[in-house]
Inverse folding.
């Protein structure tokens, strides 16, 4: 398991700008691979949402996403061989947690320096520190709930690409927006039986895709390791 000491050591290299830029390029290069693009898009939404739950601004949350993904690019191959780290989802959650903590501590330091300079009281100290992710809050619950939502959204997007637009519209109106069958029938000019059959077929597809997405997001796509080892694009 990743210790706080190890985290401090890995986070102590921001002066190595060249290494950081190289890692960031690696993350961007993986965006050319479809599996990695979906993988990072899903986890980026998760990390961004988690950062905002701790009160970070949009730009601060984006910094957390980038910092977490750079850390992933730096350590992801080692993770493949280190199962003591725990689940991949938990590992990425920990990376995000540490980055969020770093930001909150920096906000606290900047606030205290400004208050000291202006000679004002430090009324916001406790409030900011209480937002730090630790064992006493529900970070894991936040991450698990958002992960399930992200999985559902990714699976739904996949299904949408595989069915006719009108069929997906029927499914969306019936299963998601919960319109009455007869209203859908009148609006789209289809019979009720067709709406029900389409809904049943797409529901089965969605269930299958959800299972696939969960399995795929539980570990990094293999193509990323091939790129790290060979520095060539996986076919």
């Amino acid at each position: 398991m990743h210790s706080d000491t190890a985290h401090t050591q890995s986070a102590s290299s921001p002066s190595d700008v060249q290494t950081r830029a190289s890692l960031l390029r690696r993350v961007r290069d993986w965006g050319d691979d479809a599996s990695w693009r979906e993988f990072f898009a899903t986890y980026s939404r998760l990390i961004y949402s988690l950062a905002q739950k701790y009160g970070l601004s949009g730009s601060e949350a984006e910094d957390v996403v980038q910092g977490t993904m750079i850390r992933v690019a730096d350590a992801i191959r080692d993770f493949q061989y280190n199962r003591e780290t725990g689940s991949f989802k938990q590992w990425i959650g920990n990376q995000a947690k540490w980055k969020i903590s770093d930001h909150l501590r920096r906000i606290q330091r900047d606030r205290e320096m400004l208050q000291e300079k202006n000679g004002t009281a430090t009324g916001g100290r406790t409030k900011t520190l209480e937002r730090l992710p630790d064992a006493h809050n529900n970070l894991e619950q936040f991450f698990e709930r958002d992960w399930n939502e992200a999985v559902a959204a990714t699976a739904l997007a996949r299904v949408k690409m595989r069915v006719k637009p009108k069929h997906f519209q029927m499914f969306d109106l019936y299963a998601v927006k919960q319109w009455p069958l007869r209203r859908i029938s009148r609006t789209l000019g289809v019979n009720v039986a067709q709406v029900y059959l389409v809904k049943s077929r797409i529901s089965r597809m969605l269930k299958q895709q959800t299972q696939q997405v969960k399995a795929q997001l539980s570990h990094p796509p293999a193509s990323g390791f091939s790129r790290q080892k060979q520095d060539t694009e996986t076919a």
Remarks:
- The longest helix spans residues 88-118.
- Residues 129 and 164 are 51 Å apart (CA to CA).
